[in-house]
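User: Before I run my own analysis I want an independent prediction to cross-check against. Here's the chain; please return only the structure tokens and, at the end, one sentence I can use as a sanity check.
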Amino acid sequence: MKIFFGKVEYENQFGTLKTNFMKIKSGLIHKANGGYIVFQAKELLREPGLYDTLKKVIKLEECGIEVSKDYRMPMMLSTLKPESMKLDVKVILIGSSDIYNMLITQDPEFKKLFKIKAEYEEEAEMIKENVRKLCIFISSYIKDEGLLPIEKDAVEQIIEYASKLSGVQEKISTDFFEIGRVLSEANVWALRENSKSITEDHIIKVFIERKYRINKYDKKQAELIEKQVILIDTEGEQIGEINGLSITSFGEISFRKTS
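Assistant: Structure tokens:
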């Protein structure tokens, strides 16, 4: 939460936690003043208290810097209480229709604070202009996140992945959050290999590792059936019972599961 709403840092001076105005650190919401800030709704709701604090900031149109009270050491505390800062910032939430429906039905304040709802297609036509926009996103994401430069063949792999995500050969997915995750994971592999850039091999490595992780669930399911921990009757009849096979998906990877 501190990264969004700021913090006051301290140093230990002879058993007393002390601070000064140089140790007051602004949060992302302060830095966005006069402009806009974008939150992933799922991540916002995942951290306790973050959504409620954001609503308070929007309603009051100001944001202070909370002084942390979580100290593990029984020390004396010498602190500062920064004044609240007036804010003029547009807050944008990005999320699925399920999250939107949950918020609008369970939180009476949601519709008052977030008045405009915008929807965009989950996929776009595989045309030159849309591919160009995807490439612009890749370039911007790499720059904003401080990732290694990306090579042309790696970009082509991302475009191919975006097409697979859409489920239609003539379209590409607009799930930029997922595409960003792939780029970040590929960057980790590139750094591990001391590479100067993200290559096609690093993108492929991401997919191989993901498939390996997902296949573990599939293999575990098969082992449980083989060891008869999960019992499946394949002969005869039983009232109120039915054998079924469900498909569980993780991104573009799917595996079967008895149910």
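Sanity check: Residues 2-113 form a domain with the Rossmann fold fold (CATH 3.40.50.300).
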